[in-house]
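Listing S7. Sequence submitted for prediction.
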Amino acid sequence: MINAQTLTDRFLRYVQIDTQSDPQSTASPTTEKQKDLGRVLVQELHELGIADAELDAFGYVYATIPANVPSDVPDHQLPTICFCAHMDTSPDVTGAGVKPIIHRQWDGADIVLPEHADAPIVISQQDHPDLAQQIGNDIITASGDTLLGADNKAGVAAIMAAADYLMANPDVPHGRIRILFTPDEEVGKGTANIDMAKLDATYGYTIDGESLGTLEDETFSADGVQIVIQGVSTHPGFAKGKLENALKIAGDILAGLPRTDLSPETTEGMQGFVHPTHMEGNQDRVVLHFIVRDFTTAGLHEHEALLQSLVDEVLANYPHSSATLTVREQYRNMKEVLDQHPAVAEHALEAIRRAGLSPQRRSIRGGTDGSRLSFMGLPCPNIFAGEHAFHSREEWVSVQDMQKAAEVIVHLAQIWAGK
């Protein structure tokens, strides 16, 4: 159904464009270079015959595949379906100068990435169990000095391949389809400037998941927490009985965090966590940054209350210092919305079956643009794209998995059209 070579060519082209986002930037998008990929995608969409494809000032790409079946059916208005992927790559590892390598008809042996500064990086089945399903497939990696960018350019390529197929095969029935490519997902700003009226879609799907056949319709709920510590600074030579070092206060708070639970390194499944991500300051003033995660909003509040209790306990030893804890909502569990629209997930599971796969329904220990989109009025679960080992130099994807993701998109378009 989907031309594997054309899809591969697209993916290789996209990953060589540096689109790393910047968590410290206040611009929208956070890096202008994300628009470089946006411009390429708009041009390619125009070449497919999608005339309204555009890149806006905030770095979003919008496009429409018009319906080729009547919009009115006996029982209801045919919905508009949106397929979404993000263009940016993680700030965790550089995405500049990506040199993709295709390991064709992979035989199961360890994959050695030759260009790491210290020593070759080895991708093995032992460390990546999902590779066991990939023997005989074409695996794509980077060369070792960069991430690959399959998160989420695998999803971008799958959507583009599906759009190519639908435009070239007008006999395949589908309703109105909206394509959305976003910037800044990796820094939590992927939906910050989406024009929902302009998008004008009823339901959506992000194509940003991992293993073949998976549908993720439940995510973490997420908050960011900032703790600002104001100590008492004085000359260290005359500090006895006066100095209350903000750095030491911060250290006591960090040392008081749970060691056997409630941290990313000790939790799995449906367990939440409190995770310090960044610290800045000096003996006078320190700012601590945390992310807090749980599958329920009530769980989030419990974790935040624990943090506040810990801060109060530590400050009892520093009577002249103070600390302010501020919570910022990041996203909420999409399941709260998707449970009200069961057809969205059910149609995705059926599309996965029609692609010849056994669907797997999963919760994700993270979030996607779909988390926020769901609460912005666009119920939006997450479908696999085949990307693995996110945010690392060991990132990999198989051509065949991307091909299946594109097939699922085509089947979904037909299912929503009632065909």
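Caption to Listing S7: primary sequence and predicted structure tokens for the chain studied. The two ends are 17 Å apart (CA to CA). The chain has ten helices and 17 strands.
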